[in-house]
Amino acid sequence: MGHKKIRTALTVDLNKPAWEQSGLHNRWHPDVPACAKIANNEVVKIECLDWTGGQIKNNDSADDIKNVDLTQIHYLSGPFEIETAEPGDVLLVEIQDVQPFEEQPWGFTGVFAAENGGGFLDEIYPEAAKAIWDFEGIFCSSRHIPHVRFAGLIHPGILGCAPSAEVLAEWNRREGELIAANTLARDVAKPPEPKSAHAGSADESLKAKIANEGARTIPGRPEHGGNCDIKNLSRGSKVYLPVHVPGAKFSVGDLHFSQGDGEISFCGAIEMAGVITIKFNVIKNGMAKMGMKSPIFQPGPVEPQFGPGRYLTFEGFSVDEKGKQHYLDATVAYRQTCLRVIEYLRRYGYSDYQIYLLLSCAPVQGHIAGLVDIPNACTTLGVPMDIFDFDIRPEADAVKLDMGTCAFTSK
Amino acid sequence: MGHKKIRTALTVDLNKPAWEQSGLHNRWHPDVPACAKIANNEVVKIECLDWTGGQIKNNDSADDIKNVDLTQIHYLSGPFEIETAEPGDVLLVEIQDVQPFEEQPWGFTGVFAAENGGGFLDEIYPEAAKAIWDFEGIFCSSRHIPHVRFAGLIHPGILGCAPSAEVLAEWNRREGELIAANTLARDVAKPPEPKSAHAGSADESLKAKIANEGARTIPGRPEHGGNCDIKNLSRGSKVYLPVHVPGAKFSVGDLHFSQGDGEISFCGAIEMAGVITIKFNVIKNGMAKMGMKSPIFQPGPVEPQFGPGRYLTFEGFSVDEKGKQHYLDATVAYRQTCLRVIEYLRRYGYSDYQIYLLLSCAPVQGHIAGLVDIPNACTTLGVPMDIFDFDIRPEADAVKLDMGTCAFTSK
Amino acid sequence: MGHKKIRTALTVDLNKPAWEQSGLHNRWHPDVPACAKIANNEVVKIECLDWTGGQIKNNDSADDIKNVDLTQIHYLSGPFEIETAEPGDVLLVEIQDVQPFEEQPWGFTGVFAAENGGGFLDEIYPEAAKAIWDFEGIFCSSRHIPHVRFAGLIHPGILGCAPSAEVLAEWNRREGELIAANTLARDVAKPPEPKSAHAGSADESLKAKIANEGARTIPGRPEHGGNCDIKNLSRGSKVYLPVHVPGAKFSVGDLHFSQGDGEISFCGAIEMAGVITIKFNVIKNGMAKMGMKSPIFQPGPVEPQFGPGRYLTFEGFSVDEKGKQHYLDATVAYRQTCLRVIEYLRRYGYSDYQIYLLLSCAPVQGHIAGLVDIPNACTTLGVPMDIFDFDIRPEADAVKLDMGTCAFTSK
Amino acid sequence: MGHKKIRTALTVDLNKPAWEQSGLHNRWHPDVPACAKIANNEVVKIECLDWTGGQIKNNDSADDIKNVDLTQIHYLSGPFEIETAEPGDVLLVEIQDVQPFEEQPWGFTGVFAAENGGGFLDEIYPEAAKAIWDFEGIFCSSRHIPHVRFAGLIHPGILGCAPSAEVLAEWNRREGELIAANTLARDVAKPPEPKSAHAGSADESLKAKIANEGARTIPGRPEHGGNCDIKNLSRGSKVYLPVHVPGAKFSVGDLHFSQGDGEISFCGAIEMAGVITIKFNVIKNGMAKMGMKSPIFQPGPVEPQFGPGRYLTFEGFSVDEKGKQHYLDATVAYRQTCLRVIEYLRRYGYSDYQIYLLLSCAPVQGHIAGLVDIPNACTTLGVPMDIFDFDIRPEADAVKLDMGTCAFTSK
Asked: Which residue, A256, C211, D124, D234, has fewest beta-carbon neighbours within 10 Å?
């Protein structure tokens, strides 16, 4: 009789290079060897590094952000073999808790330099920047963005099951076509990249195969979820994931203490290392039963609650900053919405980079409002007013405060 | 001593053609004559027709939807001259209540035919369809979509101040350029349309001018808001609107008993006639003070609340239904997200058109999730489970019910 | 085809004495004649006077409060005969809406004089006082309590079905015993009171019987609900009521624009006249099925939401203001809790009577916290901070404001 | 540079008798020696035993509950000396997190036997009973109460600063008077009890003094809070505590994974050992500034949220089960309210003891509704419907399920 401590299915070492840890990997491929087995209906803890594998430090310089090696990302924990799972099943993943490591109670948000990673607003804000966040229980605050404090909507940025060979081939086909057709002056997708590929415990020949074929972990993808960066996959969420390979080969990582809708600065969440507690259930033949092509989820009941009337909400439309009209383009509209917030919050003394960082990681609500009223898409972004220790309502007096600065590069 | 009944600034006549009512208009133009004056700090009631001016009837045929005359839309109430308002000011509009007319306690949701209006999914669902909703106090239900009932998040689809001549010229320029460059097989924007233009009490020559130059009311636009179709502009909301002309010339209309994020079927809200109660305040020089380029709002405190854990949420990515990869396209992602819901809810016996209608008008939450993970945008759509009288959780048994049918055309 | 206006089952006349209106009554008795019939499953509107029948006026004197004739209260609308309802059934009452009358957009909150009605704190605050509240859509504010504004949690204070003769006899027995045993210097219950009894359309002899036997409407009672004064019976609530007589004989009244838990000043809600929209359903043999002895309800989904972190909450214990220890007495504890709030809010310039009125009618949350830790009961009272236009958090500076005065008697 | 692990100000040993641990104590007295110092503005972790000091085991017998030694309770962690705190100050305690120990992921709820502790309903349910709860991240479930699962509203049952000698004398005076005047057949309060008194690191003579004079920790008390058992003092709460002695001498304990309003079975929360993370701030002269006589708090933003419409709510009035009318007695009313829930939930197959346990520990909402309508107090108890895995709405079919049994004594 008696309930025992929850089993830890994978431990990580914060002081050892990520690429030397066999329970981690950074490419999606059906052949990455499973690092552990988990029983159907079992609850386990899984430890995770931050997505960069520890490249970013708790200091006041953004040099590490500027020089981050993106061929390494994202270091995921897994894959885990879930007993009884077969292709066509659905893996029900209940996220029972997510916690930072006790010995590392901090995280980071970065604006990547336009020439190394970039972000949603990099044409306007091309420099690297960084904010360090200190965790105090459920709360966080930053010396780089003063007068703000909030409860984290803690969650994993990435979770999903391995693609089958067929699914992987389809990913490489369609993303390859996009890359081939690209006429923009920027990368539109990342093909398989052998450099820095980490294939867990694979031997050399298998590792080479995975390195050459494996899909990058950067995008979420419809067939399995992956890096969906959905802020609401927090404590208590149930996620229904398609299974494509025997044993499911589930991986998870990229833990976020908090994130805003859009994660706009790319390294935009409050990135952290930590532990996730998950219960696994296999729903046999679930994909056909549910007509499922992409993951479904039910959020948990403990999201921070501000009250509907406690958001200051900004509208944006699909007319870009040069006055060009776009056709029902929600991406353009959301960029405009973000810019509207920056223009507004400036009046309190924040720099644009500070606001850009804040919008990336605070629990802002980004909604599709109207998407049919040609030619304009309309999106909204709600900023919870209660994260500030001053009054940001338009009718309150706006006083400029000493807001210090976020971290920049040493130049 | 004593508080009196709130003044009604405009009454409409449900039994008279909309184009004969001088307090209505259906084009944006600085010269539409004001239909009434409202004092700064005054609270008034304003009556509104439904956006089509009564073209859609409470019956079981979608013929009226198929044949709707879209050159007439949207019939707005106003414009109202707000005393003391000048260009550069901000008009603070507090929406104190929105109600349907007592004598017309019903509304409609339509899927426009692809050849006459269309909608977000018209390539897949090109037929006209309709659902009539009966109002029972704060709730609504439909004989055309059984087993669903919910509290309305009642709001105006359109509100805004008139453009100045300069703003109007800019609208016509940029939308004209989009039209000129269009290579799609569908309209991407609507130029000024003299047919059915209604300019309120304008005399013939002024009416002709407005008909020729006036911007269509279809899109929301960044400079003033307009048809933003934001479901959260409900009871208790405060909206901050830029003022471009002396007296603001505020108009409002397109009342919705409820709407989902995206209003995807275009005639997608529960459209109704009714009364809106508004308090007006002029914030002098507000645009410069707030750095305001587009409207801002603070939602009210009485939105229907389901609890964060009561949404079944679907993920979608910017890979279209033909397998083509799009680059960070939130519009494509949201279309996929909607399709995922349709595929799921089919299993209870609903037709695709019923679900399409339902997603348009029920209080679904459409979020931008990730918008930086190249090449995929990820959006989510949360369906409140408590609007159904059966259990839609994936783990509950799925039983097909007799769902009847929505209204279609007579063929 | 077509949905019609909801039927009004009872109209009242604001300009005619309440006792002359045959659709009203002010005593509970099985023989009060039904004023109208309502079908099972029907939705109707029912108009109601305020509970005093119009004795309190919109002015700046509390003389009317001091001199209120309490033998007249409460004027209820009904009773209504609900078709098919029989003793042992449960009447499911869905409150689909509650609205003030358009022509009377105001309400009142009163502190009754200790010698005429009294209230929860009348030993400390024995004077009559009054606040008038103006309604602006969903919001209300008062010239008598400045710097406060909130959305109403609108509801009926009283609803229930008529007692059977047996139930009525039981009420008179047990309350008579309490009165007989009373040693306090104050009334502990009110026996039947012939003066001012109003028995609807009863003829003289029936009226005399009802006047002599009828139970006062002052207390709620377990067998039927009645004057339960539950603030959460707002829009969208479903209430399950025991049926004791054929046809149920349902009555409703005492509409409140808002009320706090406890309704502590007795005339403590924002009392108003208005209209309630109700759907009725008879659940056959429901009392036995549900093991029901007292009403049950499910609140609606549109209560004003402030967020759990937006309440400043006060603790109180069952030690009275003279230092006497009471044994697990939640009533004493709640009185102390209320006093703690008064002591705190004084620092902003409010008078004690203003706070007493405010705590009675604003949507404060009064909870039982601990009720087993001998000898102290502990209760809490949460004050929503967002109803004030200044910052009431303890860490904010406390500045005394000009708070004017509530209405007092002319002396 | 760099944020370090939060300091643990007190560790406890789960395998060593509580009375041998010098950082614990179980009486309130100004002279209990401080076990550690904490700086003003410091964040620390504090470990706590469960309130019985480990007497209750994870098994299927309630013998340990029946025979619990109540002279030992409650083992509190502390007292802690907070630097700079002086009498008259307010100690602001921010509860940044509460967690069970990793190695002991379970808790217990007990019904104490009427002859040893008792509880709110012990005249009806006099037997000892127990339920063990297993923790799965934020959720808990019990093999003793099947078909129920919920997120914990985790909090400390007890926190407060030490009484001064004067305050302690007042406690002993007034509780002594109550005991002296008692005519009930049960204890109404507990005087100082030398048996099993634990005075931390006090030497023998000091320990004897504390044992003879020290107040029991059972009741909360207005002057300092103590065992207030307020379920909403959860993660993120800020509590403002009066300071009565130099250094404040703050103690905390009695951690609860969850509790319902009233904690009705006395050992009614989900009792656990664990760790609490607290930030301390001293507000100089705060008691006078705030007019503070009892603690005040602001709850945190992450309480489990069910939506207002997801509670099934029961009404109770101050007429006891023998038909006796009590005068505005909220305690009697709340007892009746609890009984109404038991009568209702029986129909699903639960035993009364299972429901009694469940109402004690699940996040039920107990409200004061009306407290002025002579002679009846009315209270309500809202049961969150979503904690059950079946539908408890009255309109759903009620099917009896196999509910097993809670733990009873071996007889």
From this structure: D124
* Contact between B309 and D391 using a beta-carbon 8 Å cutoff: no
Give the tens place of pLDDT for each residue, C214-232. Answer: 999 999 999 999 999 999 9
Name the segment(s) of chain A with CATH classification 2.60.120.580: 7-298
Task: Tell me how many degrees the CA angle C126-C127-C128 measures, rounded to the nearest 5.
Answer: 125
What pLDDT shows up at residue C3? Answer: 61
Q: At what angle do helices A330-345 and A352-361 cross, to 10 degrees?
A: 120
| 3-state secondary structure at position A317 | strand
Cβ count within 10 A of residue B15 = 6
Token duo for residue B381: 């759509």
CA atoms within 13 A on the CB side of A246: 2
Q: Quote the tokens at residue B372.
A: 């930086």
Q: What is the pLDDT of residues D13-28, one digit of tens each?
A: 999 999 999 999 999 9
Q: Which residues pair with B158 in a beta bridge?
A: B253
Residue of D178, D283, D375 with shortest CB distance to C189: D375
CB A302 within 8 A of CB A236: yes
What mean pLDDT do residues B362-370 have?
96
Cα–Cα distance measured from residue A8 to residue A18, given in angstroms and rounded to the nearest whole number: 18
Amino acid letter for position A149:
R
CATH code, A7-298:
2.60.120.580
Residues whose CB falls within 8 Å of the CB of residue C215, separated by 6 or more in sequence, listed in order:
C27, C28, C29, C163, C168, C171, C172, C175, C192, C221
Ordered DSSP codes for A239-278: EEEE--STT--EEEEEEES---TB-TTEEEEEE--EEEEE
Decide if B32 contacts B25 (C-beta within 8 A): yes
E strands present in B41-146 = 43-48, 76-82, 90-100, 106-111, 129-136, 139-142
Handedness of CA A276, A282, A286, A287 (dihedral sign): positive
The set of residues, in sequence order, having a beta carbon less than 8 Å from that of C173 and lying 6+ positions away, is: none
Contacts of D311 in chain C (CB under 8 A): 298-299
B381-400 residues touching D, CB cutoff 8 A: 386, 391
DSSP labels, D76-95: EEEEEEETT--TT-EEEEEE
Tokens representing B270?
């529960």
C-alpha distances out from residue A39 to A7, A45, A76, A282, Å: 11, 13, 20, 10
pLDDT digits (tens, 9 = 90+) for D217-265: 999 999 999 999 999 999 999 999 999 999 999 999 999 999 999 999 9
Interface A–C counts its CB contacts (< 8 A) at: 24
Residues of D in contact with B391 (CB under 8 A): 391
Mutate to test the interface with C, among D112, D153, D352, D374 (most CBs of C within 10 A): D374
- Residue from B282, B147, B168 nearest B224 by CA: B168
Fold of C308-408: Endonuclease I-creI (3.10.28)
On the question of pLDDT at B4 being above 70, the answer is yes
User: Residue D151: which of A1, A104, A302 has the nearest Cβ?
Assistant: A302
C-beta separation of B372 from B299 below 8 A: no
| Ordered alpha helix ranges (H), A149-300 | 165-180, 204-213, 286-290
Nearest to B395 by CA among A92, C244, D20, D329: A92
- Phi and psi of A72, rounded to 5°? -85, -20
> What is the CATH code for D308-406?
3.10.28.20
Structure tokens given for B23: 């307090």
Task: Give me the interface pTM, i.e. the ipTM.
Answer: 0.97
Residues A264 and B371: beta-carbon distance below 8 Å: yes
Looking at every residue in chain B, the average pLDDT score rounds to 96
Q: Per residue in C64-106, pLDDT tens?
A: 999 999 999 999 999 999 999 999 999 999 999 999 999 999 9
Cβ-Cβ contacts under 8 Å, C329 against chain D: 329-331
